[in-house]
Specification:
- The protein is α/β, with parallel strands linked by helices and about 270 residues long.
- Helices cover about 30% and strands about 25% of the residues.
- It has an eight-stranded mixed beta sheet with strand order 6-7-9-10-11-12-13-14, with helices on one face.
- The longest helix is centred in the C-terminal third of the chain and has 14 residues.
- The structure holds iron/sulfur cluster.
- The site of iron/sulfur cluster has 12 residues, from loops.
Length: about 270
């Protein structure tokens, strides 16, 4: 039996032959680290690009948005838990080759390209690359909406094909600990990609978790040290999955927006 260590994200899961990782998408098959949800699509829709959210990347356009199942984090407030927390057994999917998916995007009218979103896309990076290679021949755009916890090796493979990203920045180090994530990895990802593609960052503002002016100001100041034109989205939280905290107070969002605007040119409030 050959064990392997998965290097796709910061968890570095040890996988015995036939075993899935904690993301439920990487699998040890005969000593090879394979993408078990390759081409398995649970959701597909034409969305406004602003819904990703990306507001300074081809505004006013629509993009074919696709997702699979699985995630390498365990956010108890996940807004998409029905697919992100699902696995092969508990999700409904259809399988599409990269060619089939790209053909849908290419033949869809008024379509900018493909956004890989809804669940964590980078744990299935091979499918992104295979699809993107076809899209690029048709001058179409590739967008990722991600939690930003993929390894540097994965980012180096994917970034040559990516035109825009929205990365979630969820909270401080202790909050990431609760989610099974890693604050430093996410900040390293942001610092790595901001000069390689169009980047916007989203903080889902959750009462009592990440909603202080100090925290938001610190993140905004740090983002501005990279580029003061990075768009920051402050997104309103609503109770989902295991969290029953009340929705974020809108006045608090406005106060946090004003704090972030001390550093960044573009701070948007969303999901209100
Ligand atoms: S991608 Fe999945 S299997 Fe690989 S280290 Fe991360 S959680 Fe584990």
């Amino acid at each position: 039996m050959s064990e392997l260590i998965c290097e796709v994200c910061m968890h570095h899961c040890h996988l015995n032959d036939g075993q899935l990782g904690r993301c439920r998408t990487r699998k040890n098959e005969d000593g090879h680290n394979v993408c078990a949800n390759y081409g398995r699509i649970t959701s597909i829709a034409m969305d406004p690009i602003e819904k990703k959210p990306l507001i300074h990347f081809h505004p006013g356009s629509y993009i074919l948005s696709v997702g699979s199942y699985g995630c390498n984090l365990s956010c108890p407030f996940c807004q998409n838990a029905s697919i992100s927390m699902a696995d092969e057994e508990t999700s409904e999917y259809r399988t599409m080759s990269a060619r089939q998916l790209a053909d849908i995007a290419i033949h869809q009218k008024y379509n900018l390209g493909i956004a890989f979103t809804y669940n964590e896309p980078l744990i299935s990076y091979e499918y992104i690359i295979d699809t993107a290679k076809i899209l690029k021949r048709h001058h179409m755009q590739v967008v990722l909406v991600t939690n930003g916890t993929a390894s540097r090796q994965v980012l180096e493979k994917v970034m040559p094909y990516v035109d825009a990203m929205n990365i979630d920045l969820k909270g401080d180090e202790s909050f990431y600990h609760e989610l099974g994530g890693d604050y430093k990895t996410v900040r390293d990802t942001i610092a790595y990609v901001y000069s390689r593609c169009h980047l916007e960052v989203t903080i889902l503002v959750i009462p009592g978790k990440n909603d202080t002016p100090e925290f938001i100001g610190e993140q905004a100041e740090w983002l501005a040290s990279l580029d003061s034109e990075i768009v920051l989205h402050l997104s309103r939280y609503f109770p989902r999955y295991h969290y029953t905290l009340p929705p974020t107070d809108i006045d608090q969002l406005v106060l946090l927006q004003q704090e972030a605007q001390k550093y960044l040119k573009y701070v948007s409030i969303g999901n209100v």
